[in-house]
Structures are given as C-alpha cells and as structure tokens.
Amino acid sequence: MVRSWLPVWLCLLLALLCAGIAARSHYRTDMGDFLPHAHSLAQQALDAQVSSGGASRILMLSIEGAPPAALAQLSLGLGARLRRNPAFVAVLNGDDAAMAGVQAFVWGHRYLLSADSTPALFTVAGLRAALQNDLTLLASDFGAAAAQSLPADPTGAALSLAQQLDAAAGHGPETQDGAWFSPDGRSALLLLRTAAPGFDIDAQAKVLALIRQDFASLRAAVPGAQQARLRESGPGVFAVDTRDVTKRDVSRLSILATAGAVLFLLIAYRSPRVLLLGLLPVACGALAATAAVSLAFGFVHAITLGFGVTLIGEAMDYSIYLLTQTLKGDRADRTLARIWPTLRLGALTSIAGFCTMLLSDFTGFAQLGLFSVAGLLGAAGVTRFVLPVLVPDGFFASGAAGIGAPLRLLLRWQQPARSVLVVLLAAAVIALAAHRGPIWDDNLLNLSPLSPATQALDQRLRHDLGVPDTRYFIAYRAPSMDQALETSEQMQTVLAPLVTEKIIGGYDLPSLVLPSDRTQRARLDALPDDATLHAAFMQAISGLPFRPDSFVPFFKDVARARAGGLLTEASLPALLSLRLQSMLMPSGHGWTVLAPLQNVADAARLDASLKAALPAGAVLVDLDRQSTDLLHTFQREAVTLAVAGSLAILVLLFVGLHSPRRVLAVAGPVGAAVILTAAILTLGGKLSIFMVAGFLLIVALGSNYCLFFARGDQAPEERARALASIMLANLCTVAAYGLLSLSHIPVLHDIGLTVAIGTFLCLVCGAAFSAPVADRLG
Amino acid sequence: MQSVRCLLALGLFLAAAPRAHAQVTWGLAPLMQSLAEVKAASATFTETKTMALLKTPLQSSGTLHYVAPDYVRKTVLAPTLQDFVLQKDAVTLTAGGKTQHFDLSQAPPLAGLVEGVRATLAGDLPSLQHFYTIALSGDAETWQLLLRPRDASVSRFLSWLSIRGSGNRVTEIDTGGARGDLSRMSVDETIDHGP
User: Is A104 exposed, middle or buried (0-12, 13-18, 19+ CB in 10 A)?
Assistant: First the structure.
C-alpha cells in the first residue's frame, strides 16, 4: 500500500493550531461562571455572596498553642504588619488601631451621619435637653471619659453613632491583653477582610502565603511562642485548599490512572511505540476540545478542563478497538475498514448523547457538552484518518489474546450467568422502587471537598468572632445609587421595629454607612450659623453648671461641618467602603441592594411582617432556600440531560442498526447495567449530582461494548479479537476510573465509582445477553 | 517605687503564711483577703465632682450595693435619678428615661474606669494588678490604696484612683481625672456577711 501522509500532516497542523488557541485561552476558576446566569434578584444575591460579595472576603485566623501573653503579642504584631499591607481592607483583632480610621471618619462627619441632626436639636430647648443629659453622664462613673468629648460634642452625636455602628457590626470577642480571644482563652483571634474577593484564588493564595510568612517571622521573635500555631478559615482559604487538594488529587490520581491503563496496554501491545500511538486520539481530542470551548465561550472553566478529560475517556477505547482487533498479518487500515461502521456508530451515539448538554442553561454543562463533542470528534477523526497511517506494518497485539479469556469463560457459561443477572436485576428494580426517602443528596456540604474538621473549625471561628453565616437578606433594585440609599433609609423605618420586637437580632443597610444626598442636605441645613448657634447655646446653658468657654471646639466643629460638602462613596474609609460595597453593587444599568438581617429568630413572623411593610420591588431572600433551589435545578437539569442524551443515543441506534431487535440487543444490557449500578450506589447512601454525569458515561461507553458484542457477522478469529478489545477497553476504563474513586474530591470520587462499576456491569451484561454467538465461538 | 515593690513582695509572701501571722503583719494580701470575705455590702454615699468643664462642683448622693464577686450597683437619688449597674462585663446606665448598654470586654478604657472599685471590693488582687500599679499605705485601721492605670488608653481619662478604708470597709473613693478633674466620694458602708 502506498501510504498517504497527508492526513498526518493535516492533523499535525490542526493540533498545532489548537495548541496555539489553548495556550492563549483564558482559564477561569470562578464558580459563578459555572452556574447559570442569575435572572432573579434572589439568584443574584446568591451569586454575589458566593463569588465576590463581602462575605467572600472574610478571613478568620486563630493563633493557639502558647501562653495567652505570647498569643496576644503575636496577634497584635501580626495585626500591625498586615494593616500596613494594601491586600487587606481590614485587620481586626481587638487592637484599637484597626478602628482608628473609622473612628476619625465618624467623629469628623458626625453631624452629617447622625440622625439627631435636626433643626429641633439646635433650638434652645433641644440644646438644653442635650446638656442636661451630659450632666448625667458626667455624674456617672464614665464621667471621666465623657469629659473628654463633651466640649466638642455636647449633643452626643458621636456617642450614639458609635453605639449604632457597634450594633450593626455585631459584638466582637472578649479582649485579653489588648487582643481578641476565644471564650476558652486558648486562642487569639483575628478577623481580616481581603481586598480581593474570596474566589480570586490566586490572590487569596498570595494573601495566605503572606500571612504565614509574617506569622513565622514573628513567632521566631516572640519569646515563649515557639509552639504557637496559626490556623486559617474562610471562603478564600476554602477556595485555595480546594484547588490545592484538587490539583494534588488530580495530578496524583491521573498519573496513577494513566499508569494503570498503560500497564494493560503494554501487556496487550508489547510495544511502547504503539502504546504512544494509542494515546494519540485522546491527546488530540483534548486539544481540539479545549480550543473549541475557548473559541465558543471566550474562556475555559477549570472544571470543564478537569472534568471534561474524564468525559472523553471513551476516546481511549477507539484506538484499543483498532489496534487490538487487527488480525495477525493484517493491516491496520484494513481492520479499520472492517470495524469502522461499528466504531463510527459508537462514536456518533456518544456525541449525540453529549450534544444534548449543549442546550443547557448552565454555562458549565454547555461547556462540558461542547468539550466532549469536540473531543470525541477529534479523537474519532484521528483514529479514522491518522492512526492507520502510523501503525507499523505487521503490528499485532500479541498479548491481547489472554486478556479476552475471562469473557470467553463467561460466554461459555452464558445461560447460568443470564439467570443470575435476571435475579439480580429483579432485586435491583425492587430495591429502587421500594427506596424510601429522597434518592438525591440535598446537602450542599456533601458536594464540598472540605473535610468535616475544616468545616468544624470554620463554624467555631465564626461563632467565636461573631461572624454569622448570613442567611436572610432584603434585596431590591434602584436606578441610581442615591435612590438606592433613599430606599434604604425607608427600609430603616421598617426594620428598626423588628429589632425592638425581637423578630430579628439586627440588620445592616447601606444608608447606615452613607446617608442619601437628600438626608445629608437636610442635616446640613439643620446646622445653624455661628451667631444663631451661639445665642441659642448661651440661652440653653444658663442655669447649668457648665463653663460656657469650654465649648469653643463645638462651635468650631459645627461651623466646619456647615462649610464642608456632602459625603460620597469616595469619602469613606476602606472598612466602611467595603461594608457599603458588600451591600450596594452595580448591576446592569442600576444598582442592587442586599441588606443582611442577623439572628432571625422567627422566619415566619419575619416574612409576615415584611410582606405588608416592604416597599414595592423589595424582597426577602432566604439564601439557604436559594442554594437548595439551585441544587435542585442543577439536579433536574442533569437528569433531564442524561435522559435526553440516552434517548438521542437510542434514536441513533435505530437509525444505524435498522432493526428493533438489534437495538434491544445493544440497549438492553446497557439499561440493565445502569439499573444495577443505581441500586448498588443507593446501597452506599444517597446519589450525588455528579453520579448523573457518570450514568451518561456508562451509556456512552457501554453502548460501544454492546455494539461490538452484537456484531454477528464475524469470523471466529475476528470475534476473539473483538472480545479481547472490549475486555481491554473495559480493563483500562475500570483501572482509570476506579483509581479516581479513591479521590477525596466528591466530583472525582463519585464519577470514578459510578463509571468503574457501571462499565464493568455493561461488560458482564453485554456478554451474558449477547445473542447469537456463544456456540459459534467453539 | 522600690518600697512599693518590697511591700508587694511582702504581701504576697504573707498571703501564703498561716492566718495567725497574717493578723500580726498586715499588708496588701491580708487586706485583699479580708475584703474578699465580704459577700455583700450596702452603703450610702455623697459625691463631689470638680471638673474643668464645670463652674461649680457637681454634688450627688445615693446608694451603693455590692454582691460578691462582680455585681456593683450605684443609684444616684439626688439631684436626678440615675442607675448604674455593673454585672460581669455588662454595664447598664439608666438616666432621664434613657437606658444605655456598654460592654466592658469591648471597651477596655471603660473597664479601667470601673474595675478599680469593683476589684477592691471583691479583694481581687490579680484584676487590680492587671489594670493598675498599686501602692498601699497606712495600717489595717486606716488604709489607702493608690491605683494608677497601666494602660495609656485609660490614663488619658484617669490619672489615679484612691480608695481609703478601715478594716474591711471602704470609706472614701477619690478619682483624679485629666486636666485636674477631681471626684471625691465618701462612703458610709454597712457590711452584710450573708447567710
């Protein structure tokens, strides 16, 4: 034969092109990009909280394992260092220095910020009432402290603002030696807010490295602190840990999985060169898939990449079928001509199955669908056009004969095997039908790759630091920031009574940080000019024991407030600015407000009292329900896609095989294997959403086995090679996916387990139920 | 200063010594011990505050209640009604129909203002030493504790605190504030040794 090298060169060119595109692609890790586009306010709330909201920037540190004095010294030292770093918006640890910026801001703008700045306050009666209150304070045991601020703030604007800020910020932990401590006194606590959102994993990793480095150098310098340990928690830490664990697991397990598959291939092929050729379709397929996703979506999600490679594991089988089924003395291209119709149908059915994913609302599913479709097309193309050219003449997979032995044994005992399988199948159907309670796992935490210990540390630190995992929010939209602030002020009159009635423990609103222009202007207008203020004050003070000349700072500060302008977002110190941004964010042409409600005691009463009182367009968002809803949509979508994909495969089988009987011969064993797998998996607990993807893979891989099983028109020798190739393909799949099931990462573990069990059962069922050939084998 | 330290060391030493000796050689530890034995006490007080802010001193009078180990209530009856309750870390101040809450664990400077009196009443030497440097003078019959805040955030408001007493009774609490502010509180205490 004269080989045409054109396909090889073409393939090389395309591979280079794809590699070029893949190298220039944007790779994203943000979970938000993987989820469906947020339509409703509630979905937007979840999205904002999950990916970039203020809650995602929280970093909690615990320093433990040394005497309290050393721990406090470490905490204060670390706080001082981190505060100098722009990567942190806030470093709170009980040290007053952390709040200095906010205190100076509140003090400097107290008349614009205080709700008490009304014309009534600056009348004679208003001032007199304030001064009388001052006398009470002076007479109390706090008199010495009050005496400091009274000359500049006789109306007590700053004091009430400070209390209001404290109430909204929640109570910090107890202070010991100037630093925050846990209630058991064993760990010093710090609460940080990073400038980068929690899911900017690279930035978070840098931040963590920086903290650990600063801590290590401090620990060396503080006497008695050598045993001290630093523990971190928070969304950013989780994101980094998850990525690291995933990276480690993926690289370790995929090397093992490849090694497992390669070992079987080496036994079968006995040729390293052919082994490499066998990997060529998968490699080219992955390149093509990455390039296709990048071109279609503008970015490739990290999950698509990691997960997609497991989806196109089928591509591995293509070369196995070709290389193993080549008979002694035959040529690869002739083998291909013989098996291509079956191989093509197998590839097309899988591609049809994955095509349904392209229609999904979930960006993640759509990307995975395209990745699989492009990957399988590429791999099938390489198997069809390139591989036959490259396989050396006279290649024969001499080690494969033995590999097919168990299958031949099974075929010899086909009748008893069928009986056993029918009984098992009946038991599985009964077990699934009788299954009580939900089959799907609704606990989001079980999808998380974090260990229970990590989650427990997070719970403890959140509790000790008083950082609640906020569940309820008020959400609304507004066309401009100022209108959002005005509505927020309206909201304040709705929410304040709920606190008094103890329906909620507290709340935060953007207008508590930055009042609207209208409110600020009204407060400014309430400030009298110097002469008027002076006259009213002198009249108010008469008869009281105060020295009038003590209050010069007050007149100066009021005059300065009158001369100053209004506050804008830009005037806020970093800590308050972050607090505002976490509640008030631009969306589309307007702004979205998310106001957290703390310690909701009675959700039903809250809902009832808000229903009537909330301004039009504002809604109460329950984040837990949102995320459960999202998970349900996700599950529904996954099941729909898997069912639609399986149907598409069935339709293609009809088209390709022309006969219902032959379709049944292929689809029947696959269906039986799926039912058995589902029953086995439910024995071990609930099914996870990731297993659904596994089921689609079982159908895609298993239907290929059964297509080869169902080929009746073969010579015995061809038949033996076909059995060997199916067995080898399945061995590689079970080895690779079985190893993945050892992973601690739910997605890898669940898919690995499902596919390993399911494809093995496909092999067994396919062999047991394959109709015509048991006796022909001889 | 050296004498203070000697006194302190002596006091600590004596605290460990048998009780019979403690009655003979008096010091900080025996004083604290005798104060700690008081389970509850009530008193009337009159207070005069002289402040730079004020033309005339602020006079007030009322009652004091103490229940071991950490409850102190100061009720001003004249000239206007005012109630100040300190329990553990929670402070409630009620005056003129308004109630304000403070948390001492959140506000170390405020703790520095009130802990001196409470820790003395409780005979709680570690607390006193945590917040102040301590100088004791006099004898068991008429003693004076002079406390100076250790923390700069407290000494901004409070330069010193003097507590005078006789036996296990407190008779006078004087406070020296910033800018020469001065508060003098005389206490007429009756001790209730409890059940």
Answer: exposed
Q: Tell me which of B73, B74, B105 to substitute to probe the interface with A (most A C-beta atoms closer than 10 Å).
A: B105
| Chain B contact present for A459, CB below 8 A | no
Rounded distance, CA A332 to CA A339, Å? 10
Largest CA distance in chain B: 53
List strand residue ranges (DSSP E) for chain B, in order.
40-50, 58-67, 71-78, 82-87, 90-95, 98-103, 132-138, 143-149, 158-166, 169-177, 182-192
Cβ neighbour number for residue A552 with a 10 Å cutoff: 11
| E strand segments, A146-277 | 174-176, 179-181, 187-194, 229-233
Q: The tokens 């061809």 sit on which residue?
A: A718
> Is the complex ipTM higher than 0.85?
no
The string of DSSP codes covering A381-397 is HIIIIIHHHHSPTT---
Distance, in angstroms, between B25 CA and closest chain A CA? 34
Contacts of B175 in chain A (CB under 8 A): 144
Q: Pick from B58, B74, B103: which is nearest to A138 by CB?
A: B58
The DSSP string of A594-661 is EEEEES-S-HHHHHHHHHHHSPTT-EEEEHHHHHHHHHHHHHHHHHHHHHHHHHHHHHHHHHHH--HH
For residue range A174-226, what is the model confidence (pLDDT) as tens digits?
A: 777 778 888 888 999 999 988 888 778 888 999 999 999 999 999 999 888 88
Helix (H, G, I), strand (E, B) or coil at B12: helix
**B37 within 8 A of B151, measured Cβ to Cβ:** no
pLDDT band at A411 (very low <50, low <70, confident <90, very high): confident
Structure tokens at A616: 């039009």
Give the residue among B128, B135, B131, B180 at the shortest CA–CA distance from B159. B180
Structural domains in chain A, sorted by start:
1-33+270-398 (1.20.1640.10), 56-237+520-559 (no CATH)
Least confident of A448-462, A585-599, B13-27: B13-27
pLDDT digits (tens, 9 = 90+) for A444-481: 656 666 777 888 888 888 888 877 667 888 989 899 99
Residue A221 burial (CB count, 10 A)? 10
Question: What pLDDT was estimated at residue B14?
Answer: 36
Q: In this complex, do B74 and A141 lie within 8 Å of one another by their Cβ atoms?
A: yes
> β-strand A472-478 against B158-166: which pairing, if any?
unpaired
Interior CA angle at A145 toward A139 and A148, to 5°?
105
DSSP string, A580-602: HHHHEEEETTEEEEEEEEES-S-
Residues A716 and A773 sit within 8 Å (Cβ to Cβ): no
Answer for the pair A305, A291: CB distance below 8 angstroms, yes or no: no
Which of A191, A195, A197 minimizes the C-alpha distance to A235? Answer: A197
Report the Cα B155 to chain-centroid distance in Å.
16
Which among B112, B106, B105 has a CA at the least distance from the CA of B157? B112
DSSP A180-206: EE-TTSSEEEEEEEESS-TT-HHHHHH
Cα separation, A244 vs A458, in Å, equals 18
CB atoms within 10 A of CB A337: 11
**What residue ranges define each of the domains in chain B, with the CATH number in brackets?**
2-192 (2.50.20.10)
pLDDT in tens, A44-94: 666 666 656 667 788 999 999 999 889 999 999 999 999 899 999 888 887
pLDDT in tens, A151-188: 889 988 887 787 776 655 555 677 777 788 888 889 99
Residue A147 and residue B181: Cβ atoms within 8 Å? Answer: yes
Residue B103 has its nearest CB partner, among A137, A145, A171, at A171
Distance CA A536, CA A531 (A): 9
DSSP count for chain A of H helices, then E strands: 32, 13
